[in-house]
Amino acid sequence: MLKNQVAIVTGSTSGIGLGMARSLAQAGAAVVLNGLGDADDIEKTRAALEAETGSTIAYHPANMLQPAEIADMVASTHKTFGRLDILVNNAGVQHVAPVEDFPPEKWDAIIGINLSSAFHSMRAAVPLMKQAGRGRIINLASAHALVASPYKAAYVAAKHGIAGLTKTVALEVATDGITVNAICPGYVLTPLVEGQIPDTAQARGITEEEVKRDVLLAAQPTKEFVTTDQIGALAVFLAGDMSASITGAILPVDGGWTAQ
């Protein structure tokens, strides 16, 4: 479906980003991974994904807080492959605290990584996509792009910002063959989330199953985690030709969370 296409997926060395990178590669796209971490671990991830999918997998170490590095990631991808068809803005971080105790440096980092990095990557990618006459931009938002939760001021603000940025750029490029959409997952069972479950169970004096059902999935009517495969499948569809009339859309994949 995506044979001969080239994708960048930010924040893709683990979790949702890696899941989307895998899905895009399985659909035939060459993928540039991006993310922080141990260099040896990242290389193992890159090589394993290339072996698994048969697609070319590269890596760029751009720091999402550095606009010049983001621009270099986009430019070097285009120079290496001769094209850039798909941009997935997935990188994100979180911090939880009451607003009066929220560290300003955490606010700046979350807004920078979760929101501003998407602006910088789109600013660099859109001219290349316009030149090619086609492009697909997919921004990872969250159910928190549509609703709020307490103690997540920066994250909720950033994700609401991603929704507005998605709609704005979609309108700007609507006649250029470029679509811009946002995926809004609910709780996804990533390794990061799985690692928090035993500690939460111990702290609250409840079972791990109760943590999943009554704490993490309290807001999701299905009482089922979203999977990275489900997010990846939607990303593949949005990257393809059959989604050409879907643009500026804010698409919940949240087990009914935002239907309430």
UniProtKB/TrEMBL annotation:
PROSITE patterns per the UniProt record, alphabetical: ADH_SHORT
Protein name per the record: 3-hydroxybutyrate dehydrogenase
Superkingdom field: Bacteria
Family: Belongs to the short-chain dehydrogenases/reductases (SDR) family.
GO BP annotations, alphabetical order: monocarboxylic acid metabolic process
Organism from which the protein derives: Eilatimonas milleporae
Transmembrane segments: none
GO molecular function annotation: 3-hydroxybutyrate dehydrogenase activity
